[in-house]
Every structure is written in structure tokens, then in C-alpha cells.
Amino acid sequence: MRVLDWPDLPGWRADDHAAALAAFRVSEDLFGLNAGTEAAKAFFETYFEPVEVAATGDAHLTGYYEPEVSGSRQKSDRFSHALYALPAGIEPDLPWFSRAEIVARDLLNGLELVYLETAIEAFLAQVQGSIRVRLAEGDSLRLGFAGKNGHPYASIGRELVARGVAPATDMTPARIRQWCAENPDDEQALLNTNPSFVFFKPLDIAQDSGPLGAMGRPVTAGRSLAVDPAIIPLGSPVWIETPETGGRLVIAQDIGSAIKGAGRGDLFFGTGDAAGIAAGALNARGRMVLLRRRT
Questions:
Q1: pLDDT digits (tens, 9 = 90+) for 55-110
Q2: Which CATH superfamily is domain 2-65+217-293 in?
């Protein structure tokens, strides 16, 4: 990895370093550290040095979000597709049953946490790893990642592209939802092409807080990045550059099944439909620079 100077980061001076510092404070428990943009910039320049992880064009940045959908604690004709708690006996990173086997054998009966309206919404909640549910009973429920079945993630969007449904540039979550609505008899077979299955747990966090990332702390819209922790240590500041995002300082606070390798990052966009549209639109090549703590 190549050590850089701060002038090597286009847009560094103009970024909102105070926003990045606010996200960083959540990871580091630096609750007494509060500064404006110039002081925040000085903090990062004093205690860190920029090291290039992926040169321009070598980084791959995508986006994720926290869905917000309607649901119910009780199964009904409207709400019939469950999100599930983690079964007993699953070992981290050891393969359990695949998605197709789980569905065919009804292996999660009794572990239902909440019911959603469609199978694709339940599936997309698993892809994102967190969800807010507006309950028909009148209250709300927030769920976060509890574990997975140990099988590799496979993109159903990529599967539909391979089938010729639409080009990759048009394969958004909205397009996937449309295909599922138009092909209800084939929906589950499509979902089964992704053998990975994610389980959830209820979260007791403030309504105005972001969902919990891999560090067990809330993530921040526009400032939290999912990374491969074998490459980028969790909690690290990271400078990203893409044509869509511009140059921006973010904090590595999450991980993801599909986020593997140097230069791979997934930017958190927030909660709800607008965040989902923005997250789905980000699929860009760019640059990634780790801010490594000085010794």
C-alpha cells in the first residue's frame, strides 16, 4: 500500500470532516471529542496518515440501506412472509442448510419474528441485514443481523441479468421487485439461487439512530462504510472517491457477505425508500484510501 500526502486526496480540504468525526466518535467512544470542520480535519491529519488501498478505478463502491416496510407480528393473508430468529446449533461460518433446503423443509417453524407482505421484501431485508417494520398492531419493530447459514451470497440481480431480463445498468431493487410481481410462480426459485440465509434479532435502539453495524454501534447515513475487515480494520477512517459520491471521509463500521477484497466498500445511505433508491443507484469504480493511525 502506497503512503500518500493530504494534497493527494482531491476534495480533502472541502469535505465535512466534522460529520466524519461524529461517526468516528461512535466507534471510539470519544464522546468528549467534539469539533468543527477545521479542528476535525486537523485531528485526522495529526493522528492518521493516508495509505492507498485501491488506486483510481480499482475500488468498487456500492450502497446499502435500512428498509422500512409494513408488517405484523401475526401471520395473515396480507402478511405471510416471515423474518426469522437464529436457530440453535448454528456455528459461525460453518455451512448449515441452504435457502432452498430451509424453505422446502420448513426448518424455521416457530422462529418467526415478524411477517412481511412479500417474499422479495423479506429477501431484501436479509440482503441489507437490518429493517424497520411498521406494525399493523400500531407500534414498530427494528431488527438487526443475528447470524447466517454459512453459505456464500449470490446476487439475484446478477442472475436476472444473466437471464436477459434487463442489462446490469437497469437491474435495481425496483426492477427486481417488478419481476417478482410479474412472475409469482417463479419467485421462490429465483430467491433460491442465493443459498445464503440471514437471521435477525430485535434491536432496542433509539428511533432516530441508525441500525447497528458489525461493531455493535449505530451506523451513520453517508459516513459509514461496510468493508472487508481482513483488509480494512473496523473503526478505521477511510477516504473514498467516486464520480457519484465525490471525495468523502467515511468510517469502516460494518461488514457484508458480498464485501470482500481490497477496495470493496458498501456505503450506508440511511433508512426508507429514498435511501433505498440512492443506495441501489451506487455501483461505481473509484479509489479507496485508508487513514492509518500514526505510531
A1: 999 999 999 999 999 999 999 999 999 999 999 989 877 899 999 999 999 999 99
A2: RlpA-like domain (2.40.40.10)
What number of CA atoms fall less than 13 Å from residue 122's CA on the CB side? 25
Specify the residue for cell string 495529526.
46
Residues 6+ apart with CB under 8 A from 69: 116, 117, 121, 125, 131, 132, 133, 134
Cβ 273 vs Cβ 170: under 8 Å: no
Among 2, 16, 63, residue whose Cα is nearest residue 288: 2
What is the DSSP code (8-state) at residue 102? H
Find residue 54's DSSP bridge partners: 288
Tell me the fold of 69-202.
Ribosomal Protein L25; Chain P (2.40.240)
Domain definitions of the chain by residue range? 2-65+217-293, 69-202
Q: What are the C-alpha distances in Å from 246 to residues 16, 66, 230, 250, 279?
A: 12, 23, 25, 12, 15
Find cell 398492531 and name the residue.
137
